[in-house]
Amino acid sequence: MEETRRFPMKLDLKKGKVEMVHGSGGRAMAQLIEEIFVKHFRNPLLDQGNDQAMFNVDAGRMVMSCDGHVISPLFFPGGDIGSLSVHGTVNDVAMSGAKALYLSASFIIEEGYPMSDLNRIVESMAAAAKKAGVMVVTGDTKVVERGKGDGVFISTTGVGVVPEGVHISGDKAQVGDVILVSGTMGDHGVAIMSSREGLEFETEILSDSAALNGLITEMVEAVPEIHCLRDPTRGGLATTLNEIALQSNVGMQLIEDDVPVHEDVKAACELLGLDPMYVANEGKLICICAPEHAETLLSIMQSHEYGKKAAIVGKVVEDEHGFVQMETTFGGSRIVDWLAGEQLPRIC
Amino acid sequence: MKYVDEFRDGKLARKLSKAIAAEADENRTYNLMEFCGGHTHAIFRYGVQDLMPDNVKFVHGPGCPVCVLPIGRIDNAIALVEDNDTILCTYGDMMRVPASGRKSLLKAKAAGADVRMVYSTQDALKLAREFPDKEVIFFAIGFETTTPPTAVAIKQAQKEGLKNFTVFCNHVLTPAAIQHILQSPEVREMGAVSIDGFFGPSHVSSVIGTEPYEFFAEEFQRPVVIAGFEPLDVMQSALMLIRQLNEGRSEVENEYTRVVTREGNLKAQALVAEVFELRREFEWRGLGMVPYSALSIKDEFAEFDAEVRFSVPKIVAYDVKGCECPSILRGVKKPTDCKLFGTVCTPENPMGSCMVSSEGACAAYWSYGRFRQPDTKAIKIEKEAA
Q1: pTM of full prediction above 0.80
Q2: Collapsing DSSP states into helix, strand and coil, what is residue A27?
């Protein structure tokens, strides 16, 4: 970015619309960046004003993760695309046990999008980053013609540093391990569905969208030997456990009664013919650890803001097929397979 | 969840399981066909088979609305939207059902056709109001349960004077199909399939009542128990069927009394009779041509009939080679008897209709049972020991 300069007319954040010129690289784009992005994201690295952010790195292992966000609607009960784009990437970085540090943010905005909404999104994104203790240090803005996008798409990339002695990975689940979840399943998916056009229904369910890096830091400090951490986003608990089972070459056994699901989510799923096991979460994690660590981790989760409803839901077993099985509330058993097809598109 | 959890109670299930084991005669088998996909789904979702003695077997029937639609009708639907620059709307599962030439409505959509998923006929009407310059076609499928809402939509369109709304009607009738299965040579003469009794449909029966089943219970000497869709309903109904068989009775009994009456929903029946009439015959996937088994739109409402407004030729199409959907829909074969099952045919890439809907037998087998893992009972045994 060039040295900051004042623009004679301020952006109209009430009635203004994003125009093609705001992505052209000229003065209009500089003003958009200045008056919306830099204003909210302000930090020393961004203020360097270069096309890249430059920072020192500690010795050790770094992690990097990227995530594109195309959710519809952009504002939903319990969050919006801005906060979600921070939470999603921070969580992906943190699930390695790493301390999340920096984010990049790339915006693809549709011509005609209201400035006021864009401002709200960036404001919410900045607040989410602040709460998660990460900085947005570099970014990009593109504008596409009307009809070629759907409001705003945001891609974020995050980097973080893994503490010494932590080796968390999806291929480390071992037979005998215990499976924990940090709270109720399916809240995000149901909150999105309840606000979709053509499907609106009344529910008090809010998306669980949240950054879990703080919770993970506490967990990793207490038990550096955690085997796996993963956030059950698209495809829900069922699909995520299947991924880990495949990676670790083990089977899993769940107890349906022990999986926490909000009553309203159960009811909504019943109505829509969905299974909460497959509905997306954006602020929950699955933790797999040795049995002797399960109680410690459970109590850390339960005393944290984002883990109050944490529970032990099953265990890792030997199974050459890599099946995830579940004892149903009813007393029978069934395979919990990968999600097939699409439960609902564009939920994150 | 109130009024739902009560019908999924594990303790009651174990009690019923014991009662069934005690009453089932170990010197015979009980082959019980659940006609409806809803029952198939419940049986797999809750692991009901695990709670049954080995000689009580579920035979999965053809009652999955997307499964029984012949490929030719899906080809028709694709042609309707591709050739006429229309908006075609339908229920979600229908989008993925394979048509001829490896096409499907979903693939037609990806290629640019305006295919939309709706949750109700009201959504379809809304689209017609929203796009007055476009022809909006509702691809109507389903048994007697989904027929009244289609009738309502047609009447509403007439009242509002909507000129751009039509229905591609594929509504089918349950009793005709059950009778056809019982008359099939595999059941009657060859004895290849033995079906001892039927779980009658739940939602369908809420509309048509229990009376229509009386004829074939009597004629074919097979007991019918109208069963709710919850797992305890299925178990209770199994017990009622076993009792009838043990006592040599072939009656229509109603387990689902909280919803179903003998005469059914008269208002809905009147609506359907006002808008629709019987087709002389209709093709069912798996069953072939079944006489008087489907509905078409009456002449008075012809302006809302897509088959009148557009050209809908009769298309004879064939299932993918090796696909056993037809035999599976008749209860003659199990999904695992099909060579394609789980190899080239999976829910991600369905070759036949039974692998598409969650109510289809193949999809249920694959998603909840896979190839019936030998060690699932391990959880229970271990837990009981603990």
Answers
A1: yes
A2: helix
